[in-house]
## 1
Amino acid sequence: MDEIFEALADTNRRMIIEYLRSGEMSAGAIASKFSIAREGVSKHLRILLAAGLVSVKQEGRSRVYRLEPETFKELDRWMDPYRRFWEQRLDALATEIQRGKRSPASTAPQPTSNRPDIKGA
């Protein structure tokens, strides 16, 4: 799991994941979307491959990458208890907000002047 999180910690690698969401892409097509050197993109692809987030197949002279759904399912299973925790917290917040909207207008005291009353003037 650590290797997955380390791979996802980098912005460029997350961008590669986003590009691959739409389907398979060759290494060259992925590299063309970045302003960094092809060698840098290749390094990012190797890290994603080692983490199991992508797989690669050779098609002629091209290496074609695709997402590995099983690794994302594993990540999703790990995150599920945290997702439920935050959903419960957000549901509770929504309930409190709704209660606040239903309550009558605020009866908070009006601000008073800091000046002392002047008597006998």
## 2
Amino acid sequence: MKEFLEFIARHLVDSPESVSIDQEEKDDKIIFKLKVGEQDVGKIIGKKGRTAQAMRVLLGAVAAKDGKRAILEIAD
């Protein structure tokens, strides 16, 4: 899941080398903290949060295959 999320994020931003993802597991939840460069935060969030929401839906679908819940947080 982490590699999938990183693949999507790297293709959305101008500086893919600034993308980093921290993963934390609690019970049956996996929390992903996505960090990008300051100038790329808007590209990850998208208009009205649509890009971030789409990433969350895709991540949730991948996690459901493993019987887990995934949460995406976008760090400043």
